[in-house]
Amino acid sequence: MRTLLEFKHVSKQYGSETRALSDVNFAVKEGEFVSIIGPSGAGKSTLLRCINRMIDASSGEIVFDNASVLALNKNELKKLRTRIGMIFQHYNLVNRLSVIENVLHGRLGYKSTLAGVLGLYTKEEKAQAYRLLQVLGLQEQVYKRCDQLSGGQKQRVGIARALVQDPKMLLCDEPIASLDPNSSKVIMEHLRDICSKMGITVVVNLHQVDVAMNYSDRIVGVNKGTVVYDGPPAGLTKEKLRAIYGADYDKLTEEEGGRHVG
Amino acid sequence: MHANTNIPAKPFNKSSFVIRMTLLMLVALTLFGLLTFDYKDLVLSEAIRKTGDTLGTMLIEPHAKHFTFGEALGQVTITIGLAFLTTLFGAVIALFLALLTARNLSRPAVSLAIKSVVAFIRAVPTVLWVLIFAVAAGLGSVAAVIGMTFHSISYLVKAYSESIEELEDGVIEALRASGAGWWQIVFQAVLPSSISYIISWTFVRFEINFAVAVAMGAAAGAGGIGFDMFMASNFYFDIREIGFITYMILAFAILLELLARWIKRKLAVNA
Amino acid sequence: MSGSFFLRKRLNTLFFCALVLALTIIAIIITEYDVVKGFTSVPKAAEWAVSNFVPNEKAMDKLPDIIDKLLETLLVSIAATSTAAVFALVFAVLGSQKTGIGGPFSMISRWIATVFRNIDVAAWSMILLFSFGQNVLTGYLALFFCSFGFLTRAFMESIDEMSMSSVEALRATGAGYIHIVAHSVIPSSLPQLISWVLFTIETNIRQATLIGILTGTGIGFLFNLYYKSLNYASASLAVIAIVVAIMIIESVSNYVRRVIM
Fold it and tell me: H or E element: which one contains A59?
């Protein structure tokens, strides 16, 4: 399988003191399900946002689909972002709009400014949005306003919004951190289906090790802005986990034990 | 054990110190002002009695001598028209400026620049804006509307941009991440989220502008019911007519307030 | 799936825009607003202001007069606001839903506030002009009445928003009504109340200029005098003085608000 995404010596510096990422190297193959784990503040979120340049890396090279991300101009960047879907911990939906309108927001990147401003979506786009909502089990909620949905439903709307972009890759920033165990399980299963059935590469930030081990093809462990583990879930031994989470590891296992679905 | 009968001294608290100082200053300035004003030869008791009489005559025996009821109604409509145009122009310009001022949509430098201009506009009283424009455009509705628009802008930019800032940064981030542009984000996320606040603030300003338009009619010859009041007071010295006009204004002001409340409730239901 | 959802939404927007447009056209017709002149007068006014509306050396001679009148106007605004605040506080406490003595008084108190607030400051000053003539008290009382109406409502809302737990606690100790108000209601809403007072002072200084023009007192009178005699240099100096005064007051009250809130 070919490589879709590659990080080469990527660093990110905030100001002169804080170094969020230092010399990060890893690659993601097409169709892979990759989890990024690590303690909070390790730089997972920054790493993810460097891919679609919501945050600009300070140095190094990021290659997505054979193009160097950091060299893109404004228009090319917009094109790149349409091909990368993103979902968030807090869903980030426009609460006062209906479900379908939120989903259709995923199409804005493909539209002219005026068509986007006026919200002129084609019949096909609406049909596609509806189909995705059906797949995600939200056909009853299509015209409901988003503030009437539960957390799990909101996250599924977020997924639909990302999928309607027709993305090659899905970036998920702590998608289940605000959800209860049952909803978490539903969301993770949808993400795995998206990867295996739709062939979309999924990169997901998680802080629950058990969930990451259950669903991922590969795990990247990050600590203090550097990659300390890159391999299959099976290779994640206690020692490796201690390297990722440092002294917090034992505390973490106590806290997490049995709380999250596996 | 050593018994300490003294309660420990109250620690210095900046906030209550400032509260005390503010109150003290207000009292001092008020007393100083009331004691040093040049009252001329006014006999206070006489004046108060006369005001009482005037108010009595005005409120109990209002009449309209220099215009009919229909004409007065027409004048009030002109005042409302002035207030409407002012509010509309102010709202359109303020909305645009507010987008450039809101922290989540703009750059800090642009935001600060607009905020300073707006602060300056706000510092000049409306009547002065109107009179300054009257020199260039002549007394009339153009000078009144444009002069009053300035204050509406400064008021609404603040109100709008604060409403816009209520939108979580995450929503904007999500749309940017999907490749949406600035204008698309504004129309698809920002405005739908804050439209009910925006409309409700616009109505509050409309109410204010009605009162301002009355005053500008009186002070700057802007036309409308305010000008009639000015004539009744300064030329005909007809206190009963002032009473009549005051009742008309009061009735419309209360009507507008009820309308504003109704709209707010309606928006809250749909919200 | 139905397209009617989007259709309805679009029709709503369209209807709203059409309504606004129609009202605008009606307003333009009845106010005889000249749209073209409206656009051209802005650059014209700016051009005029830059060349004529600037203080010159001769205007500087008037500076002592201006400052004198400005101080008078400032003091009138502050005095009117503070005294109005005292009365407003009494009415607000008695009229509030939480601390009110209830019954008809609460109603009356709200009603008085509404009436006073809705009689414009311009109307007040013209009414008072009849018996007080060209006197500081005319402006003072006009501001007093309007501030009283506004502050009563504002205070009432602040007191209503206050949490009732401390009032209950005091009531439980057997404290009387006056004690509860003095030791619980007022202290806990004081920052809010001061913030409203400061806001009213800012507004009143601007209003005082308008009243001055109408009643021939204070800085407004002076501005009007220069303006009417086409002495724009001096008039502009008066405007600058007002702007400086308002900005100073605003920054002081912003500071106070930041510290106490």
Answer: strand A59-64
CB pair distance less than 8 Å for B47 and C114:
no
- Whether the CB of A110 is below 8 Å from some CB of chain B: the reply is yes
* β A201-206/A169-173 pair status: parallel
Sign of CA dihedral C61, C64, C69, C74: positive
User: Which residues on chain A are in Cβ contact (under 8 Å) with C6?
Assistant: 121, 126
State the nearest Cα–Cα gap between C38 and chain A, in angstroms. 29
Q: Where are the alpha helices (DSSP H) in B61-107?
A: 69-101
Q: Domains (ranges, CATH) in chain A?
A: 3-83+168-256 (3.40.50.300), 94-166 (no CATH)
User: pLDDT tens, A20-31?
Assistant: 898 999 999 999
Name which residue leads in pLDDT, B6 or A90.
A90
**Please, which chains are in contact with C (at least 3 CB pairs closer than 8 A)?**
A, B
d(CA B233, CA B195): 42
Hey, what's the torsion of the CAs at B146, C47, B135, C135, to 10 degrees?
A: 80
Topology adopted by domain C57-260: MetI-like fold (1.10.3720)
Cβ atoms of residues B118 and B55 within 8 Å: no
pLDDT at position A257 is 47
A239 in Cβ contact with A229 (< 8 Å): no
SS3 A30: coil
What burial class does residue B45 get, using C-beta atoms within 10 Å of its C-beta: 0-12 exposed, 13-18 middle, 19+ buried?
A: exposed
The first and second tokens of residue B237, run together, are: 């010295």
Chain C residue numbers touching A130 (CB-CB < 8 A): 1
What is the model's pLDDT at position A262? 38
Chain B nearest CA to A128, separation (Å): 17
Q: How far apart (Å, rounded) are the C-alpha atoms in residues A206 and A52?
A: 18
Write down the CATH superfamily of domain B66-270. MetI-like (1.10.3720.10)
Segments making up each domain of chain C, as ranges: 4-52, 57-260
CB contact under 8 A, A126 and C5: no
User: In Å, what is the CA distance from B62 to each residue of B57, B93, C230?
Assistant: 7, 41, 38
Q: Is the pLDDT of residue B34 over 50?
A: yes
Can you give the pLDDT at residue C37?
Answer: 84
Pair B120, B192: CB distance under 8 Å: no
Phi first, then psi, for residue A85 (nearest 5°) are -85, 155
Q: Which of the residue ranges A234-238, B55-59, B168-172 would you say has the lowest mean pLDDT? A: B55-59
Q: Tokens representing C64?
A: 């002592």
What is d(CA C260, CA C254) in angstroms, rounded to the nearest whole number? 10
The two tokens of residue A240 are 């490796």
Query: If residue A64 lies in a helix (H) or strand (E), which one and from where to where?
Result: strand A59-64
Q: Which of B52, B23, A98 is nearest to C141 (CA)?
A: B52
Euclidean distance between CA atoms A58 and A80, whole angstroms: 19
Q: How far is A224 from chain B (nearest CA, A)?
A: 24
DSSP character string of B102-153: STTTS-HHHHHHHHHHHHHHHHS-HHHHHHHHHHHH-TTHHHHHHHHHHHHH
Question: Is A100 within 8 Å of C3 when comparing Cβ atoms?
Answer: no
